[in-house]
Predict the structure.
Amino acid sequence: MPERFTVTTPIYYVNDVPHIGHAYNEVATDVLARWHRMRGDDTWMLTGTDEHGQKIMRTAAANGVSPQDWTDRLVETAWIPQLELLNIANDDFIRTTDERHKIGVRIFLERLKEAGYIYHGEFEGQYCVGCEEYKTPNDLVPGTGEFEGQLVCAIHSRPVETVREANYFFKLSEFGDRLLALYDERPDYVQPEHVRNEVRQFVKQGLNDLSISRNTFDWGIKVPWDETHVVYVWFEALLNYITANGYGVDDERFERRWPATHIVGKDIARFHAVIWPAMQMAAGLPISDHVFGHGWLLVGGEKMSKSKATGIEPRQITEVFGVDAFRYYFMSAIAFGSDGSFSWEDLDARYHSELANGLGNLASRVIAMVHKYCDGVVPAVDADDDIQSLVTDAVGRADTAIDRFAIDEAVDAAMSIVERLNGYITEQAPWVLAKDDAQRDRLAAVLASNVHGIGAAAILLAPVMPESAQKLWAAVGGEGDVLAQPIREAHAWQGTGRVSTVPPLFPRIEQAQPAT
């Protein structure tokens, strides 16, 4: 019986076009999903767009269109094309304007109301439209520049608004002890550790009830028992994880796909690790498997942001380096869970040293030698014991790293094979062995070891670089789709016994940074 692995990105707010911060999350989630598929797990990856709320309404009005027209345009021209550009193999894409989402939200709300977790009350607070969130004093920092002398949102660097409303509330305050118990009983529920500690500290300070409706604008899902209110965008958005897989409508599908693992940015981990599990507890649902809050991409020391003019669109990079190199760089250069700084110089250096000169050059040299010395036939001998042991160890380390969401460590394990083989070739000097008939057996072992190691590396790198790995896999005699190979058995792969010419996988690039 295959294990279930349901994994989600957050749903992205469509007030603007996506940048590489969004792409980072999408690629990471895709790598995890592809890896689990190659394990044979019953895998389902969900992504989508968050399309309601005050910020969307204001953005649409500023552009002279309706909110629906605005979201339709951005989804069709920017967000779905980005998934296609980055070769994201998601199984589903949900929009919060989908009818299935609206139906599920209403069912969920009715169940919470019947259970006594929703009431009507009045509230006044400091609201950041950019975050679509009420802020506590600890969330605000002194403004600079035009906002000097004011308190601003720490994320958007803009003043908050004082909002006074009579809304419906969710009794979040009743779940503090149960949440702390959850964190104790399942220490791997919120990861990495520094995010878990921040979440725990937030809950220990005491929780306030959550305002879950708005009546000052109408762009949202109507509260089913009071259509003068729309559901608070964050409360409604979190429900996409269950409305996409049949909640309240298709029990069999829901049972198959739930619970899920959520891959989110650390700035929204609080929503996913505090509000969302409390909502699940209130509704009597199984709690999500994991919430992983990864770090930010930093450009010039600041978080990637369109509003701060630090946003870089993925196409600016993929047009220069290619899609697989984009995916490889962001999955290997940054410890997943920590902040990471992006620079064109670092991308260029890693591309040439690790991909062009490392993996690409290794493959072309080995395949050329098998053609030259063995007429393209891979010697039918076992790999050297030390190479076989290294490959087996790398496969195990990579797979274990994925269980810890340490994608960068999994990539490092795969690339340790490449690094060792490049050194191994220098040590063994097959071009010297080929000149001595007495060394034919040694030459055969060296070439077989290299081909075997490259094939295993291709399997391990397939979730990260699907297109390049497939070309590499086919070139060393792998049969079929590399993504169909059992990844935990990558060290034991067997192929056709023949190599074919490999196309240039990572050609040298003269001008790394596009002209501005």
About this structure: The longest helix spans residues 344-374.
